Amino acid sequence: MRRAQKYADFRDYEHYVGRWWMLTGSLLLLAVPTTICVVYDAWPPITDLLRGLLGVAPIYWTVGTIEVLTYVPMLGTGGSYLGFLTGNLTSLKVPCALNAMQASGVEAGTEEGELISTIAIGVSSLVTTAIIAIGVLALSSIRGFIESPLLQPAFDNILPALFGPLAVVYVSKNWKIAMAPLIFMIVLFVCVPALASSVGVLVPVGAVIAIVAARILYKKGLV
Fold this sequence. Notes:
Distance between the termini: 34 Å
Number of strands: 0
Helix content: over 70%
């Protein structure tokens, strides 16, 4: 009972700190373009700004809402605040957290899983920052090599390289459940290749299909 109360108090503290950090991070992000506009007296016309936001904002708001609903149960409280503040969840933070929980033998949604997830995302953020800093410093000397046509196929396959090994692990553990969303997505992308740019929106669709398939297989006693 005492442990449960301590955990509840810690969760409240996580939310308190997380909300303040998210607010501070948002203000800092907005402060950069605002400072540039003030210093150089170069304010964009409000009509052009609204026109640009009209075409982009609905997509980001939709994907952002979907990511919150999809990733928060997987990452836990601390990991979610840290992950959404530092960004790059789909291609980096979520795979790191899931792989760390898998290697540690803990489940998402547990106290242990939340702890491992938060540590993994924190380490990932520090490593990413260090690599970016080194890359920026070395960019002047290696830019021509990075932009060469020889390396372009490698950059085009970064996401498959990240999620491929991760998918093998989880599909092999629950292959019966994974078959339904996997087959659905393969058929969908083969028939409509243009949807490849809407992967973020289709993630919850695959989750719903997996849940329905798991329910049906469970009722039939197959899982």
